[in-house]
Amino acid sequence: MLGPQGRRGEVLADLHTDFPERFDERRELSGLAANGERRELRLEEHWLHKGGVVLKFAGVDSISDAERLAGIEVQIPREQRAELEAGAAYVSELVGCEVFIGDPSELLGTVADVDFGGGAAPLLVIRGGQQQEYLVPYAEEFLRAVDFERRRIDMTLPEGLLELQAPLSSDEKQQQKFEADEARAAGERKKRR
Q: Is the domain of 66 the same as that of 8?
């Protein structure tokens, strides 16, 4: 939940479901705070708003009440989840899975998050060794095997995908700085003319 929306305790939330119509059926929800604290929430009403959803909970009747809900993640019990189509997965199933690439398999890292911001496929945010982070599309054409019980995803990635995200070497950084300095100097010479 992002924060207050209105004056009577309504809260604006990002919409992380493909089934917003299920809010019509669900009244008992759970809120999970960043510190792991859980809170039961009774949904009184909701409506879609600017790509998100406005939620009104029982007992949350003021702006200050709504402010206390900011940052809390709304959840439903696992057994109430909607059935997904083949190949689809819930974020909670993906986060924490180890991702292996290549043949023979090599550990790339662990799924830390899923980003739905760009493109047709969601991006797995994978954290590897030495704090390296990779963004890898969770796309059927890259998946070899998915085993949520073993928390393992095996993928075959297009050649060069990971290299595009690799940090620059010291030589590459020097070259990049040199080119930027040259461009800046050329711009200054042009101004003087």
A: yes
